[in-house]
Model the fold of this input.
Amino acid sequence: MPIELEAIIGLEVHAQMNTKTKMFCGCDNDAFGKPPNTTVCEICMGHPGTLPVPNKEAVLKAIRASLALQCTVNRENHFDRKHYFYPDLPSGFQISQYDFPLASKGYLTFDIPPSPRVGGVGGEGLEKTCRITRLHMENDAGKLSHLGASTLCDYNRAGTPLMEIVTEPDLRSSDEAVRFAEELRRVLIAVNASEADMFKGMMRFDASISLREKGTQKLNPRSEIKNLNSFKALGRALAYEENRLRKLWEDDGGPLKGSITVGWMDDEGKTRILRSKETADDYRYFPEPDIPPLRLEEEMLENTQKTLPMLPREQRKAYIAMGLSPAEALTLMSQQGLRERFDAIHTETADPKLASGMILTQLIGFLNVHSKTMASAPSSEEFIALAKAEISGRISSHARKEVLEKSVMTGRAPMEIIEKEGMRQISDDSVLEDWVAKAIAANPDAIASFKKGKEAALGSVVGWVMKQTRGQANPGKVTELLKKKM
Ligand code: ZN
Ligand code: MN
Done:
């Protein structure tokens, strides 16, 4: 009888925090689109004699993430120097946390939707929990670009605050690892600890995998896949490596003899061995002498806990209860800006349909069509004002859509567009009666078929009035007046 093997997978996740400044200096932490080496200073360049000072905003964000991951935040934790020599690290060491990390012993529960890939569990999905070993803070290194024989160094990223989140080996397949990582990303976004934009490399994974005979508890030597930058790469690399280890097991009659480190070659769809763990990393950790231990007040931790928003799994259920589809709920949670705006409109109007139309349909649609980012989206307050303008009858729903598109395209505030362009809804009966009379005269065919009993013909007459008034007529009133007139 063949032995049944199972995969044992654990992750190390690095996520950049969305702070204003870097981890230990005042440099701008948003280097996106800025020329190389323009957001740097002596501190993040690691010059001798400079003094790093921990960023309070980063510590608070890391605490929010720790609490959302149900970790114990260690009231006393400290920074250590982790030494290695590489051109992306000008000081020769990274400031990290080693034996006293910020937080430890948490967990994250995530969903595995029903799918034929998951053992054919029909209808019901599965719920899984992965334990979190620790969450610690550190600074990112610079970025190297290899061009032919030369290498270019950009230190804008050097000093960016990172959270490193390490899991227990609780994951059992590449699919589970990806589902976990996706849920983790939603949590970091929900607590506003990271933008976790995969395209900008804000979230990166190292994945460890080993095999064992099902039913045993032993942890065998593992293969660690370094530097995976997308969910797709994470899933493909783990699936490939699991297969490779299974074949090795068949050939050798057992697991790896020692742990190895491999790289994922995305173009080839293969892993490649970088080094075996015999030459174990020696980082010569020691306490960072320039930064005193962090002592966190119990009261501050309690207050931070109180400010945490609803977590994604709970929030997803709440959105679905409002009538959104599971896919729409996930879209809202993919960017903090979308969720904030949706929640703001919904809280103010108690109308999930309106909020979903404005955000999920129109805002996302206009951003895509005009190739804009969230930076071009009106603020929550501006969305509320726009929604209220429609509810009060000041503008029509047609005009609201037009105003929103113009606002996304030009960056002007919606209410300013309404003022300047005279986009008011016409609800005045006498004005509308004039338009109705004109519409009847201009659409004899449609009127005739309506009189013969074709209800739908009326729509085109109302449409004619809307077009002539540039969407400013109140369509409900126009319909009412038309019917009365005939
Ligand atoms: Zn700096
Ligand atoms: Mn790290």
Summary: Residues 22, 25, 27, 40-41, 43-44, 159 surround zinc ion (ligand 1) (CB under 6 Å). The two ends are 85 Å apart (CA to CA). The longest helix spans residues 231-252.
